[in-house]
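Tutorial handout. Part one gives the primary structure; part two gives the three-dimensional structure as tokens.
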Amino acid sequence: MKATAKIAAPITGDKLYQKRAREALPLLVRQAEAEETVFYSDLAAELGMPNARNLNFPLGSIGETLERLSKAWGEKIPPLQCLVVNRRENLPGEGIGWFLIKEDDFASLPMSRKRAIVKAELARVFNYGRWHDVLRELEIPYTPKDYSALFKAASTGNRGGEGPEHEALKNFVAANPTVIGLSPKTAKGQTEFKLPSADTIDVSFTLDDEWVAAEVKSRISQEPDVVRGIFQCVKYQAVMEAVQSGRGERRAARAVLVLEGKLPADLLPLKNALGIEVFEGVKPASSAVKAA
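Part two.
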């Protein structure tokens, strides 16, 4: 089957996928500058697309456009679209193979080889210094969202949402690791886990190959408190990685945000740029959950 990557037209044009490609390109430039990948579902949500599967043509269009611009400039522009990855393998879709190795059999490569290829390309994407030149050449505006007012509210407002509702959600998550995507066999999480930095993780799960922290925000948490939660995850993950290094351990470390309510739509760009995984709609009365 001919790959979508090879039949998608460049970014100029009036087809829906081309318009979405032009909307997606500056978002991917943002991710490149933040040195963060983004899940297909998260990018689709930010673009207002109900089905992440429909990203194949917009991403193929971006890839084709960068290929043509590379030839025009006489230099290799890295495949920016490889920043978009799936949740299961944390790898780009099969169509990326055409832009990485110019072959259709990327899907048949051993997983270790796929990861090595993608890792090398991501390093090139993160280190490429002309992404804004690319946007200017294509006449695509880039206006980062201004969070100044919300950041001020988050840094100066009173901390909230840590009453009975917070306690109930915290205990529920500790007893139900599956709501943050962990195996049902995962041991119950430890609440109020103390870090050497004097920070306290709401719920800590220790697995054989991973250490996962969950910061929880109940339904009464307002937007500034959710912003604090996002940045707390950034801080926790950094400290957790330092702890692992100090112990000489190779276990991966990550911090996720758990919301009883929904993630405010205007915070989606922030959480994507910072690479924080958010689980929303986690209610102590049920196991319903949606990864944002």
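Part three, for discussion. The chain has two domains: 4-137, 148-291. The first helix runs from residue 4 to 7.
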